Amino acid sequence: MISNLKEQYSPLYFLAALGPGGLAVSFYIYMYFMVPHPNTPMATTDFIFPLIAQKSAISALLLLDYVIILFLAFLHFRLLIWNIKEYGLFKQTQAFEQLKTGNQEVSLMAIPLTYAMTINVCFVLGAILVPGLWSVVEYLFPFALAGFLAVGIYAMRLFLDYAIRIMVTKSFDFVQNNNLSQMIAIFAFSMVSVGLAAPGAMSHHKEVSALGIFFSVFFSSVSISLIIFKITLGFKSILEQGVSREASVSLWIMLPILTLLGITFVRYTYGFAHNFDNTDGVSKSWLFLLTSGVLSLQVMFGLLGFYTMQKLDYFNEFIHGSTKSVSSFAIICPGVAFAVFGFFFVHQGLVLNDIIQQFSIAYFLTLTPFILVQAKTVQLMLKLNRKMLQ
Prior knowledge:
Blueprint: H1 14-34, H2 45-53, H3 57-90, H4 94-99, H5 110-129, H6 137-169, H7 184-202, H8 206-241, H9 254-276, H10 284-311, H11 314-319, H12 332-351, H13 361-389
Helix pairs in contact: 1-3, 1-5, 1-12, 1-13, 2-3, 3-5, 5-6, 5-7, 6-7, 6-8, 7-8, 7-9, 8-9, 9-10, 9-12, 10-12, 12-13
């Protein structure tokens, strides 16, 4: 692996660690939705290990899933440590000071974004490796809240430093804003929001649930308000200048943002039903509407980005070609996001409403496009790692 990049380093290299972290979570989704886990909101070792012990075809698939998750988690932590070291060296250079005078300062938001993903990866590893986790999970939720809040405060500090500078000094470059890369800040706030929403949905203590939902609403509200502002400015510059060829991959950034906010609102739905409305079930029709709406927007932004990048020959040059661009790591997150939310759409939107039956032919046919996108995303991640990090 390359090292001591110094001036050649970019905070966007944190996306190289973010990708495998997100993919590790995406492969846990199979266990989350397909392994029966009555009376708990997550599939843990208590439910997974007995299925593995049966030594059936299902056991083999679960073991394969374990291997993939552990490999991706290892890759995430390896690249995270590498990034922390390289970023420390980068901060000592003139290039870092130069970064903080232009539009690219927003790339620092990739750091809290990745840290928030690290907490999610740790939670997944706990679920699949620690027996009896759910018996002590209520003691862990406050630590999870503290962790995500710490990352959220760090993200807010970075963003406010950047936003105040460009407002006071009038140094924002609208000509160079002909992409949606400024929305990485929204991506980071959305990641914090979905993390805080987890204890809000899963805790049986109303106080913990309320704290999680309140702070999650804070960051999701910030995200939604900034989407309106940033996407308007971005498309204004795109329509005036034409989209930046190298940064055209940023047209896909709405996919992970939509996934995170969509899952956040799914978690609100469950948290309100269990801890506030005191009902046994949730509004199934609302979950169908929510997941359908999010998926529809993802398809629209996915097609817009794909055909634009195809028109610009982005894939041949920056993915399959010899040209190296650190922003190309951003292509991993949309694939992860689309695959993950596809599972939420199928299970929370379709299966829960008895539109299709779980494990039926229609069920697997509906999941197929999301599984194929996930597989292609793994292939792209490995390809970019070989190209950019060796």
